[in-house]
Amino acid sequence: MSSDLGSPGATTQRLLVRQARWIAHDVLELRLTRPTGGALPAWEPGAHVELALPSGLRRAYSLCGEVTDTEAWTIAVHRVPEGRGGSREIHETALVGRELEVRGPVNRFPLVPAPGYLLLAGGIGVTPLLPMARELTARGLPWRLLLGARDRSRLVYAEELVALGGDRVLLVPQDEAGLPDLAAELAATPSTHAVYACGPQPMLDAVTTLCRTAAPARSPHLERFIAATDAIPDQLNATSGEFEVVLSRSGLRLTVPADRTVLDVIREKLPDVPYSCEEGYCGTCETPVTAGVPDHRDTVIDPSERPTATTMMICVSRCDSPVLELDL
Ligand code: FES
Questions:
Q1: Residues 132 and 44 in one domain
Q2: How far is CA 170 from CA 19, 41, 191, 196, in A?
Q3: Is 280 in the pocket of ligand 1 (CB under 6 A)?
Q4: Residue 187: which domain range?
């Protein structure tokens, strides 16, 4: 992992919510600018920023505007009624004209060099892929994008994508066309092309399995978003027993009960410890482990890398040894 929103390189600024508009069913697009105008830090496709909402909740969103628009950052937020409140707050609070603290941008989902690209999106997962499609078009590289959603009203940025890519864009409203044929898309994509996918976990699981079992096997680039129907995986709700956490910089020793997360317990002592999704998919809370055996439950670290991982996502991961020591 190269960086996170808590790293010294991630900048924080107060930005004005300049504009909001509906772009699909239950999806609100926000345009953020400096209060008095002026250029914002540059970013590359795949980057995200973290918003501190008026309630204190912090949530990460992919930047989905034009990278050439130096004066504004654009995000799109899908309302998740049964979520933990971040998207509801954004949808139900009159944010236009208000200032929010925004950290970033950080890019954990960058474009890697490749002769061509297959971009697979589920619902709001299209947000990091739209700037990628623009970038690949500008570079003259071959790409194809598949966007699936429950129905046409939920095909986020469909018009922009079709205007950009024409028949390189395949829209799959599932009430009309059924589930996207990911296997066919992958089979039709040369093995040298890079595969990027962003969407709900079942879709990413399917992409992972198809890529691993392909001949030759391929390594997809994945970013997860919670969809409206995507419940928090059981694995994240399951707890292990009580264990101790030692914070190596201060020597503090804390007890993590079976019904609380490492993040919860640490925040009582270190309120500024970075976090965002609290569901193990954004990477903001990634923390170096200096001793002990983490029980990784996130979706940031690839399962194949877990045995050798030197960091953990403290919002969901736990501990398989009696004591865990963290570089905090
Ligand atoms: S806060 Fe998102 S992975 Fe932990």
A1: no
A2: 29, 33, 20, 15
A3: yes
A4: 117-224
